[in-house]
Amino acid sequence: MIDPLGKDAARAVARVTRDSIADPDQRDRAALAVRDRLAELALPASSVGGYWPLGSELDVRPALLHFKQAGRAVALPVSGPRGTALVFRDWDPALPTAAGRYGIQEPDASRPLVQPAVLLVPLLAFDRSGQRLGYGAGYYDRTLDALRARGPVVAVGVAFAAQEVAAVPCGPHDERLDWIVTERETLRFGE
Predict the structure, then answer these.
(1) CA-based Rg of the chain, rounded to a whole angstrom?
(2) Packing angle between helix 61-69 and helix 24-40, nearest 10 degrees?
(3) Could you tell me if 147 and 169 are in contact, meaning their C-beta atoms sit under 8 angstroms apart?
(4) Alpha helix (H) ranges present in the chain?
(5) What confidence score (pLDDT) does residue 58 get?
(6) 116: phi then psi, degrees, rounded to nearest 5
(7) Rounded distance, CA 188 to CA 96, Å?
(8) Beta carbons of 160 and 2 less than 8 angstroms apart
(9) Can you give the pTM of this predicted structure?
(10) Which of 56, 68, 139, 141 has its CA 20 to 30 A from that of 88?
(11) Residue 44, Cα to own-chain centre: how many angstroms?
(12) Per-residue pLDDT tens for 41-89?
């Protein structure tokens, strides 16, 4: 059994580390470098689920725009009640979004649902075994579990290189990532 205080302490340290990357130019350069690294990967061509950055998360919108311009369906999550998997709705950057459950921008409910073949996953910390530390609500673990039960999905953790830790505390319900992409490197796990 995982010590919940261990995960809470790890989350606190990870937030401080990520929040310390305050230079907007450095953050923008990292977002563009991650976009370029993602563009080089041989990812499934159909659909990409991303996220709208919250606080100091790495901004994946440049990557999402790249995928959209390449003709892929691009979707953003819509948060339901705590303890449920996320659903994804088509994102059109030309259309307005609205603040959802946690104040995060989401596509309108009229946008079509999308089943992502690739999911860009935000995180607080990651390690070299493909584990990630999230915020603790379990949204992405439940989402990956649900998506993988329906078919193949490639989970790509997206972060600043500074968010790497030696080992992420993990439990039986934590979903491993297939890739981790930072501004400095691309890590692949499994096949």
Answers:
(1) 16
(2) 40
(3) no
(4) 4-19, 24-40, 61-69, 139-150
(5) 96
(6) -65, 140
(7) 35
(8) no
(9) 0.91
(10) 56
(11) 16
(12) 999 879 999 999 988 899 999 999 999 999 999 999 998 888 889 999 9
